[in-house]
Amino acid sequence: xxxxxxxxxxxxxxxxxxxxxxxxxxxxxxxxxxxxxxxxxxxxxxxxxxxxxxxxxxxxxxxxxxxxxxxxxxxxxxxxxxxxxxxxxxxxxxxxxxxxxxxxxxxxxxxxxxxxxxxxxxxxxxxxxxxxxxxxxxxxxxxxxxxxxxxxxxxxxxxxxxxxxxxxxxxxxxxxxxxxxxxxxxxxxxxxxxxxxxxxxxxxxxxxxxxxxxxxxxxxxxxxxxxxxxxxxxxxxxxxxxxxxxxxxxxxxxxxxxxxxxxxxxxxxxxxxxxxxxxxxxxxxxxxxxxxxxxxxxxxxxxxxxxxxxxxxx
Length: 314
Hints:
Elements: E1 10-14, H1 29-38, H2 40-54, E2 58-61, H3 68-75, H4 78-87, E3 91-96, H5 111-128, E4 132-136, H6 153-171, E5 176-180, H7 190-199, E6 206-208, H8 211-216, H9 221-227, E7 236-237, E8 239-240, H10 254-258, E9 262-263, H11 272-279, E10 287-290, H12 298-313
Parallel strand pairs: 1-2, 1-10, 2-3, 3-4, 4-5, 5-6, 7-10
Antiparallel strand pairs: 8-9
């Protein structure tokens, strides 16, 4: 465990940073996704150029089009991708196993498929030189839905059981499983995080707190980080405008509904000095992953974000 590390961290970002259609000269998200799926080589070429220009060396893979399948279509295999990245001073630090593209954790019959999907991600990560697999717990249901869905001890016990099996499986390939604190998910409120961490084995289950999402739930990101210091393998550094103050409809549009509450680093309510201080004591202190969902000018946004982080860490 590190304490007040003053060395320069590896700055990283989620590939979602590059999903804004304006960055690609396109007029809609659908047009961008269609183009990127059809042109994975050109997609990755521009992403890598932009990363190098921004001075950010690490990437987190996520859902399509910046996913593992896209990499394999563009480069053939993980070692080839690793060589292309290394030639530019870049590397993969993690991969996010999106719930929308994975078997449903609420269905007990899906355990075999869930483990198989995690093992596929872990094998890719090992081949590309990374060791962090980020996952999330299922979403809540819209408030007022009948019958009601409760995030209680029985539910968290089931989630912990699955997390243990998945965490042990990916550990066989030298990969850590860390859970992301997504807004409106069952790992959102401070209480959710504390309950899940209490019920899981620290040898197999790690935490990936997201400063923005915790703040959107009315929580204190730095306080969460301080309580779970030893279990934070990675963190998403993102800012929030204010806590979400309405009950959102939780369906396929929920992520778009959350978007107006998110903002670039340094322009919102997150206490970056407190967060940076807490992060400096974690096992994941060596990586600062700046998350900027769909930045129209990702190079400028990443440069601004790294400046905020450097000031907070000073």
